[in-house]
Here is the input.
Amino acid sequence: MIHNDNKLPDLPPPKNTTGIVGWAKENLFSSPLNSILTIIACYLLYISLVPAVEWAFVKADWLGDSREACTSGGACWVFITARLNQFIYGFYPEELYWRVNIVFAIFSVLVAALVIERTPYKGWIASFALIVFPVIAFFLLYGGGFDLKIVETHKWGGLMLTLVLAVVGIVAALPFGVLLALGRRSDMPVVKSFCVIFIEIWRGVPLITVLFMASVMLPLFIPEEVSFDKLLRALVGIVMFQSAYMAEVVRGGLQAIPKGQYEAAKALGLSYWKSMGLIILPQALKMMIPGIVNTFIALFKDTSLVLIIGLFDLLAIVQAGLSDPKWLGYSVEGYVFVAFVFWVFCFGMSQYSQALERKLDTGHKS
Amino acid sequence: MPENKHNLAAGNVSFWNDPAKRSLVFQAILFLAVFAVGYIIYQNTQHNLESRGITTGFEFLDAEAGFGIIQSLIPYDETHSYGTTFIVGLLNTILVSALGVFFATILGFLIGVARLSHNWLIARVAAVYIEIFRNIPLLLQIFFWYFAVLRLLPGPRQSLEFADIAFLNVRGVYLPSPVLGEGFGWVLAALVLALIAIFFIKRWAKRRQNETGDQFPVFWASLGVLIGLPFIVFLLSGASLQWEIPELKGFNFRGGLTIIPELSALLIALTIYTAAFIAEIVRSGIESISKGQTEAARALGVSPGKTLQLVIIPQAMRVIIPPLTSQYLNLIKNSSLATAIGYPDLVSVFAGTTLNQTGQAIEVISMTMAVYLTLSLLVSLFMNWYNKRMALVER
Here is the structure.
């Protein structure tokens, strides 16, 4: 008997399970229903994407400085390019743009340094960003010291104003939020109820009513002699509103710290503030970063509401541009551009927060 | 030192080192501080109001409003009071919120399920939808639909028609409206009766299944009762329902049901925006159910549809409901953006026009805020009750 011990060579996998064909079979045409869905989706994509790409790129006009340059029937990006300075700086005096640019530059360097994982001295950079940078930014943007000309806040606008509102809103809201969250978890009934009422009231009303309140009621609350800048009033409203949301994020972080940590801190004989400052908050804050980023995204989008009380943020600049008789009828371009700017910022931040969540995930979840 | 030891042993701690006493002092300080700030604000406000000649109080609610509102669910014209404007605004807010919650839930669940589809293309399209719409400010989306889409529709004479009964133009959507004849009350009564009947059918079916194991097609039976009973009564009572079809008269359509473009824009934007968030919630809810549950159900011979209905969805709902509640609350609060395009909601009518005409900032803003607080409270109470019913009962 001849016994063949030689192994036969492996047969290649069947043709229709590999390559593009196999992939399509598996992912697009696995069942009759799936095939129908795929075909419908392809058709819908075809009839929506082709005209959109044609409008936005193929037939678009990019160069020029008035609407006469728009002749090819597609998108008229001239509307955007002609007003780009306004979109970025609002009505800031043109010869002083460099001051805003410096602030933008420092800000981006700081953000990059804090986001990149391997930067050394992160603690120092963070304290610089939180304590020194705001002072520099204030003097550069507003002026008033060091021989810098004052630029009134009603001339601020565009992306610059959007960023100022969002960054000041979140940074100022953070300490208030931490205090409110600690108060909410406090054993002292008066402190606790005060914090609960504060948080629940601001979380229960729309931001727009808070802004209305800040713009019409706040002036009644303070002595007549004190005049209160419109931007400052909006900021007060935003910070109040945002600190309530921040408090809930912090509370989530505090609740996620195992009870043993609190007990260990107590067993070491640390006082309340020491145990919070040295043991609980550092751990909680680290866990809260994704939550803070998400709050920041929400705030960044919400800053567009200030146009209702008459501040000229990025979106308000489009609205203003649309009522300019020279540019009637280019609303789609304006909205698409501003939507794109907001989208880039928010999408970037949400990707960052998801990456952080994966990185900080300690594996307690399944 | 011996004295100190003695003191401690006797529980005679110095005042500042006793946590109980310290916390009392701390709370007293906070209370006084809040009180003082409140008092200063009160003083300033009194002074400011006096110097501007604004009277306080709620008498203004009875004064004649003198301005028109483009959409009102209750009879309203210029001669009605500011109190009525408040109600009109409130009802309009509730209308757009309720419709928004309804449509956003449906669209959100659809997108969320599509995101998990085995069909690669469908899953990708759903993912792109979510990433686009939740990262663009809602106000911008409202503006886009209102100024860039609905404003570009043709005028009344060139309206888009649907089977000659519904029309779409720059002034809004015109639909036929039902005209209820005599005897229509009986149909409504039959509808209520059908709902009661369904309740009992469901109870009976459950008891029967518990006792005998036989399943009863509750859904189809309920649907039959719900549609059949009112329909029979409708025929018996003489089919007294007519439709008023909008007609082009002069420069605009008259008659029928009109949906103003402000409402459409707001509703489309709220639905699309909130649905993106709901979709993510639904996805994470379904993903949180371990695969073993599906496999166990299939191993028992339960069909895929029933697995989804009886095993996956009820468990996923426990994860979904709390964040879904916050999305509903967000939607209600976001409906206040209506004021930016002039849909007559509470903020626009009351905190806008009424406030400007009367100058009663404190009363108007507090009433507006109180309404939103109450609405938020009611919705979260209801959703918490529902959540409790659905929650896992653990030993």
